[in-house]
Amino acid sequence: MSESTEKLDVIDLPKDFESALKELEEIVQSMESDVLSLEASLKAYERGVALARVCQERLDAAEQQVQVLQNNLLRPAQIEVE
């Protein structure tokens, strides 16, 4: 795979979790069906690794957001007494 093709593959990666996961599931199904050649399987595996990385990054970001929300919501309320 040339450097320009590698860059194109990275640029073409889905930005959202759901799209990346759907494509990853499709790759897994095609690899499990044994219809891919060795070269196609290697390319699919490489793409799958990149998609898995996208999914993990989105999950990590969501986990950080949940932690921030929990920290803000779990603080004792400060009520001003007049």
From TrEMBL:
<dbReference type="GO" id="GO:0008855">
    <property type="term" value="F:exodeoxyribonuclease VII activity"/>
</dbReference>
<keyword id="KW-0269">Exonuclease</keyword>
<dbReference type="InterPro" id="IPR003761">
    <property type="entry name" value="Exonuc_VII_S"/>
</dbReference>
<keyword id="KW-0175">Coiled coil</keyword>
<comment type="similarity">
    <text>Belongs to the XseB family.</text>
</comment>
<dbReference type="Pfam" id="PF02609">
    <property type="entry name" value="Exonuc_VII_S"/>
</dbReference>
<keyword id="KW-0378">Hydrolase</keyword>
<feature type="coiled-coil region">
    <location>
        <begin position="21"/>
        <end position="72"/>
    </location>
</feature>
<comment type="function">
    <text>Bidirectionally degrades single-stranded DNA into large acid-insoluble oligonucleotides, which are then degraded further into small acid-soluble oligonucleotides.</text>
</comment>
<dbReference type="InterPro" id="IPR037004">
    <property type="entry name" value="Exonuc_VII_ssu_sf"/>
</dbReference>
<protein>
    <recommendedName>
        <fullName>Exodeoxyribonuclease 7 small subunit</fullName>
        <ecNumber>3.1.11.6</ecNumber>
    </recommendedName>
</protein>
<comment type="subunit">
    <text>Heterooligomer composed of large and small subunits.</text>
</comment>
<keyword id="KW-0540">Nuclease</keyword>
<keyword id="KW-0963">Cytoplasm</keyword>
